[in-house]
């Protein structure tokens, strides 16, 4: 039995409605875990969930995405789920996405999870999966060759939204690291589960409509390119949790190097192209400092 779990915080209800419409014929039941939306928003959210027969659990405060996911996973497990589908509030499943992911998982018993490619509705760009399995390769994104899309690709990591996960691959107690709050929660789980012998599968033939980042900026780097970015507060979590991830012994060395290099590139981009430069410099520096000293939890 497949149960979807959507984490919400001040959601755009029109977008969430599209998600629930896209999922209701694809899963056995749906859960929404709300992470502290306002009372006015909750009233509308309750009506929407009632309309779609969705189980709604309100946490009353912003506990972070990892804690909310753990609450949803526990609820799905109690309901008898064999698989859970994690969803962000701004994602929309394509027709038959869940069935395609389930068929892919069924064919590979030692696969913990399968995820779709993503399509950003603002930029019109498709994104595929990070891979690292060919000897000597720097981590990179898989791309179809000559327009050929295999049934599945073994990947290094999956984003949480759209991931179909076997319940048997999840520890019964707090499978996601709650004290990381947000950012790289999914990446950390992927490396941790791979270290235990499971594999992860990307399914390029199916898509998830998704919005990566709070904003899109057009930047020039040998041609104009759309680049997603978040608020300075999210920059803090991204930099802190990247450092925490680098410190994990189950993360391969080439990924540690890649993550550090990626932080340097992000920092350069933020300072050159995005607003609130001084605040971003402060928040990214605090993120690096807190990551080094192992400080976790919500920024205060």
What do you see in this structure?
The protein is α/β, with parallel strands linked by helices. It has 8 helices and 14 strands. The protein has helices at 13-23, 39-51, 65-78, 97-107, 185-195, 232-246, 253-273, 277-293; strands spanning 2-8, 29-34, 55-58, 83-88, 92-93, 111-120, 126-127, 130-131, 140-141, 153-155, 164-166, 199-210, 215-220, 224-229. Strands 1, 2, 3, 4, 5, 6, 7, 10, 11 and 12 form a 10-stranded mixed beta sheet that branches. It has a two-stranded antiparallel sheet with strand order 8-9. A two-stranded antiparallel ribbon has the order 13-14. The radius of gyration is 19 Å and the shape is globular.
- Proportion of residues in β-strands: 15-25%
Instruction: Show unreliable segments.
Output: none
Basic shape: globular
In N-to-C order, the SSE pattern is EHEHEHEEHEEEEEEHEEEHHH
Helix content: 25-40%
Q: How is the main sheet built?
A: 10 strands, mixed
Number of helices: 8
Number of beta strands: 14
From the N-terminal CA to the C-terminal CA, the straight-line distance is: 40 Å
Mean pLDDT: 89
Give me the secondary-structure category: alpha/beta
What is the radius of gyration? 19 Å
């Amino acid at each position: 039995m497949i149960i979807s779990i959507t984490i919400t915080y001040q959601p755009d209800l029109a977008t969430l409605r599209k998600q629930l419409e896209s999922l209701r014929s694809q899963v056995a039941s749906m859960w929404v875990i709300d992470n502290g939306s306002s009372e006015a928003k909750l009233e509308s959210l309750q009506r929407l969930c009632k309309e779609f027969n969705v189980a709604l659990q309100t946490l009353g405060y912003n506990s972070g995405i990892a804690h909310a996911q753990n609450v949803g996973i526990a609820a799905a497990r109690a309901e008898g789920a064999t698989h859970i589908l994690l969803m962000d509030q701004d994602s929309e499943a394509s027709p038959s996405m869940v069935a395609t992911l389930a068929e892919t998982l069924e064919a590979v018993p030692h696969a913990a999870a399968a995820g779709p490619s993503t399509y950003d509705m603002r930029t019109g760009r498709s994104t595929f999966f990070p891979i690292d399995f060919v000897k000597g390769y720097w981590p990179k994104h898989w791309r179809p060759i000559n327009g050929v899309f295999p049934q599945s690709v073994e990947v290094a990591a999956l984003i949480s939204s759209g991931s179909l996960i076997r319940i048997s691959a999840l520890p019964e107690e707090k499978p996601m690291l709650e004290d990381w709050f947000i950012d790289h929660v999914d990446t950390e789980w992927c490396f941790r589960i791979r270290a235990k012998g499971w594999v992860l599968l990307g399914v390029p033939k199916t898509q998830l409509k998704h919005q990566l980042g709070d904003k899109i900026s057009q930047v020039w780097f040998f041609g104009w390119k759309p680049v997603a970015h978040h608020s300075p507060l999210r920059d803090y979590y991204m930099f802190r949790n990247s450092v925490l991830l680098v410190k994990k012994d189950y993360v391969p060395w080439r990924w540690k190097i890649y993550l550090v290099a990626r932080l340097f590139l992000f920092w350069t981009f933020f300072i050159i192209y995005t607003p609130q430069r001084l605040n971003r410099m402060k928040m990214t520096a605090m993120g690096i400092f807190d990551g080094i000293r192992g400080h976790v939890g919500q920024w205060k």
